[in-house]
Amino acid sequence: MDIFGKSITQLRELIKDKKLSKQEVWEYFAKRSTKYNKKLNAYVTLLDKTQKGSDPYLGFSGIPLAIKDNFCTKGVRTTASSKVLDDFVPSYESTVTAKLKAEGYELLGKTNMDAWAHGSSTETSDYGPTKNPWDIVRAPGGSSGGTAAAVSAYLVPGGIGSETAGSIRQPASWCGVVGLKPTYGRVSRYGVIAMGSSFDCPGPMTTTIEDAALLLGIIAGKDQYDATSTSNEVPNYRKLLHEKKVFTIGVPKEYMKNLEKDVYKRVTESIDILQKMGHTIKEVSLLNPSYSISVYTILQRAEVSSNLGRYDGIRYGNNRSFFGQEAKRRIMLGTYTLSHGYYDAFYKKAQKIKTLIINDLKRVFADVDLIAAPPTPMTALKLGEFEKYPFFGETMDVLNEAAAVAGTPAISIPCGLDSKGLPVGLQFMGNYFDEENILNLSYQFEQETNFFDVIKLGREKYI
Amino acid sequence: MPKKIDLTKEDVLHIAKLANLPISEENIAKYQKDLSETLKYVENLDELDISNVQPTSHSTNLENIYFKDGMKNSRQFSQEEATRNAKNTKNGQFVVKRLML
Amino acid sequence: MNYESYIINRLNNMNKYTPVIGLEIHVELKTKSKMFCQCDADFFDKKPNSNTCPVCLGMPGALPVPNRTAVEWAIKIGQALGCSINKQSKFDRKHYFYPDLPKAYQISQYDEPLAEHGQVILTPSPRGKNPVINKRMDPSVTPQDDKSKIFRITRVHLEEDTGKLTHTGKDTLVDFNRSGVPLVEIVTEPDFDNSVDVKIFLEELHTIIRYLDVSDANMEEGSMRLEPNISLRKTLNPKSEIRNNIKIPNNKQKFELPNYKVEVKNINSFNFAKRAIEYEIKRQAKILDKGETPAQETRGYDDKKGVTFSQRSKEEAQDYRYFPEPDIPPMVFSDEEIESIRKTLPELPHEKLARFMKEYRLKYADAFILTRNIQTALYFESICADTALEQIEVPDKSTSSQQLVANVMVNKRIPTRLPQEEFLQKLIKLYKPVEVDEEKLTQVIDHVIAQHPTQVAQYKGGKMGLIGFFIGQVMKEMKGKADPKTVRKKIHESLDI
Q1: Whole-model pTM?
Q2: Where along chain A do its domains lie?
Q3: C133, pLDDT greater than 50
Q4: Is the domain of C279 the same as that of C217?
Q5: How many other C-beta atoms lie within 10 A of the C-beta of residue C477?
Q6: Same domain, C105 and C32
Q7: Distance in angstroms (rounded) separating the CA atoms of residues C53 and C30
Q8: Minimal Cα distance from C54: which residue of B?
Q9: Which of A73, A82, B46, C46 has the fewest Cβ atoms within 10 angstroms?
């Protein structure tokens, strides 16, 4: 049975029908991951079941997934790609990975990321950058670059990333895979190494929409250990994919500016396709995204400066001299904006503009069901280019920050290639807890276009 | 207090102290530049009218989330689990250099 | 002004300066679980760091969820101190670096505490009535008495405790078993101007909190902690200045607050608090006399040496960088909820004391002692309600049986740890009317009358007072085994023929 290219959903069926064994599946992906990791550096830690007693996952429980290295996995090294946590092995499990384990998925490896999730290229990792499988002199995006690369090169059939602002959508678009950021509060943050407490969202990164719906259905839901997780009922996302829905889709004119030529082209072509499919396209107006950059920069860095205070090397890990430049920079800015006398001028002001951004989105969603836009203004940059910007991450994520700040859900799906042969992403944004419609429209698009074979082409580079 | 955009060396050293971050002499200038650039950018927020706007802390609109006193502790560490990741322990306690009081 | 504080004032020659003292008190709640996790709040005698979990150890990815009971109990404390409860409240992060603070921030409350603007009114008892009373304040006297003092409670809020540090040799050891235990912080306005009032206030606060059964509030054990802020101001007019009087409370007086304050830590008992404050007042007065200003700082108290000593300079005030806790949604309380918590308050010590004085006609001193502990007060009332009490006969007609019970309990003539039945049995034994052998009594009376013809003649001649003589003689012969009332009656019967 040829495994190459099968989705999680397909593999589950095959295992259930005993056409494949869990061991076969594990070994297949473990082999591929080991083989290509030297080239791509997608993983910080790869589990090795051949060594006796080397990991706590006894036997083969199911389909292997790649998990971003900011999820605490019991008994398995967790570093957030920072030397501060170089030797940290948690004795507790994040809720997300516990839920996946309970549903019969297993951990293949912990994927590389921007250290502490600070970045949009996975270049601030203390373990070297991950390479974009489409062109290894380029960055995969970030901060979930490792997961995106692993899924793109089919080293695993799917994985979990996290997004604070853009960290799932942007690498998904640069690596040509599916990446979903759920509503803030939809998925528990317990056990996820905190970056921006008000924004962090764990989410699936997959090769098909059905897989994204499948994984979301497993990880979503209220968690007693996370006071910010909501009790909203978890719909049957997979079932709802097949409903024949017609949407009114808003395209914000502010989001169609300052784009690379090919990004603009592919996105507008895709929107035309949506229209031909029967959906209504409407031009809408959203607050200038540059304000979201400022709001997000202030609020996120303030929370980062607070969340990284606990890393002092006393109870675990190494001391604060092990922090990288980017982490220190963000901690410093955050500390400054919270310091005596500046709280009103920065943090409180940003919280007020957050209100404006939320109201702005609410206003638009009163008129449209979903919003379509590019997820990033450009395709994958070359490694090293990020050094030009002091707040590179935030600038790269300009088209992601509104949803991040508001806490609304959004997805990035492939919609073609640019003239350099690099993937271009298409983004759908939805209202609070409207993942089902985001996935529905994405599924329709996938059925119609098969994402222009982007995902297929991506993994075929790694046959 | 009026905002400061161009940070001085003393500002940077003060922030580093507050943040408990070791920074080397060579890097101070770079931090000055980086931080000042970022602060300059976020000034664009002054363009917006927020005179009657309330700050939003939580986008979820959740309220009153608690746990019940006395419920089972499923996450309890043993002494070994609690101290296993520390580099310096003594008799089950974490060790730091003696504090000057 | 309270007699004792007046004396202290004179002794210290403080007419020039008036102390300005505010209190910051922390009370450890005795909930079952910690404030933000399910670890045991009772950390006593546990192996170091064995009473921890990812949350209270500040591990990566751990998140706080608040303990509902801790919130309710903090509100209760606020209500018992006369505060209004904020319908909107929240937690905030308070940042500083110290090894006993695992997250490098404490989850506390900043600008929306659970309770604010309360007060405790303490009233000195009338001078001269009873030397014992002069040392205490009588909270039952109504505020119409112009000697009452109001001590304003600024706020009551909820936060988490830190780990414990042990300094040994070249190291400091850290144990996080206590980290995350719920703490209620009570802050007063700087309404205190002497050490005696502070001690009495603390004792009253301790009693109130014990009544609520939310904490052991024990200073020696660390479940109640005090940090006074002390400074001195110039007395405006030493001869006529009225200090902290209920008719002109502090917030309406116009005096200049000093431009410094000294915080004192490491005070482990009510007495230490009094001594530490007295020492500080003297120390600061000396500095001010020289024309200098005492340094704004934190000082520790060493009771062995009887001094405070400098710990760290508060000159550069800590920048805590407060911001709202993003991991915990806000708390919103309805009027109904707040009212339903208030309904669970027991009768407070000063209310019970007033009622005991009124209902049982107890003297202040006895009522005070009986109400220091709610169990004792309940026990007293239970005894008083017991019908078996009717069996006793109080020797002094001006005393009621309840007053007698109070007296017996206060003087510990019978241990009050006994089960109620046993207590009553012992009481009855002490005060049961004596069984009279009627026949023997008649014999003895006749005998006494026969033995003292002179006195009989005098009595019959008009000296009615001699009845006491005869009673005495009869009681002597009866060896006390007679009821004086009956004896008197029978003698009258015999003599008044």
Answers
A1: 0.91
A2: 8-460
A3: no
A4: yes
A5: 18
A6: yes
A7: 19
A8: B75
A9: B46
Residues C426, C455 within the same domain: no
Domain edges within chain B: 1-45
Q: What is the dihedral of CA A79, A80, A82, A84, to 10 degrees?
A: -60
Among residues C294, C316, C338, which one ends one of the domains? C338
Is A94 near chain C, with CB under 8 Å?
A: yes
C112 and C215: one domain? yes
CA distance linking residue A29 with residue A156, whole number of Å? 6
The one-letter amino acid code at A343 reads Y
Provide, as residue numbers in chain A, all residues whose Cβ is less than 8 Å from the Cβ of C177: none
| Of residues C53, C93, C319, nearest to A306 (C-beta) | C93
Same-domain pairing of C217 and C334: yes
What is the 3-state secondary structure of A163-224?
Answer: ECCCCCHHHHHHHCCEEEECCCCCECCCCECCCCCCCCEEEEEECCHHHHHHHHHHHECCCC
Distance from CA of A434 to the nearest CA of C (A): 22
d(CA A246, CA A276): 12
By three-state DSSP, how is residue C166 classified? strand
DSSP bridge partners of A48: none
Q: Is CATH 1.10.390 correct for B1-45?
A: no
Is the pLDDT at A259 greater than 60, yes or no? Answer: yes
Neighbours of chain B (3+ CB pairs under 8 A): A, C
Q: What are C141's two structure tokens? A: 């006297």
- Give the separation between CA A255 and CA A249, rounded to whole angstroms: 14
A307: left (phi over 0), alpha (psi -120 to 50) or beta: alpha
Is the domain of C121 the same as that of C217?
A: yes
Chain B residues at the C interface, defined by Cβ less than 8 Å, are 18, 20, 57-58, 60, 62-79, 82-83, 90-99, 101
The complex's ipTM works out to: 0.96
Of the CA atoms within 13 Å of residue A315, those in its CB half-sphere come to: 30
Overall CATH class of domain A8-460: alpha beta
CA–CA separation, A22 and A291 (whole Å): 49
DSSP bridge partners of C95: C105
Using a 10 angstrom Cβ sphere, with 0-12 exposed, 13-18 middle and 19 or more buried, the burial of residue C10 is exposed
Q: State the amino acid at position A352 in one-letter form.
A: K
pLDDT tens for each residue of A38-54: 999 999 999 977 654 44
What are the tokens at A265? 């082209």
Strands C171-175 and C164-168: antiparallel
- Alpha-carbon distance A288 to A372, whole Å? 16
Are C404 and C450 found together in one domain? Answer: no
Q: What is the pLDDT of residues C177-233, one digit of tens each?
A: 999 999 999 999 999 999 989 999 999 999 999 999 999 999 999 999 999 999 999
Residues spanned by the domain of C459: 438-495
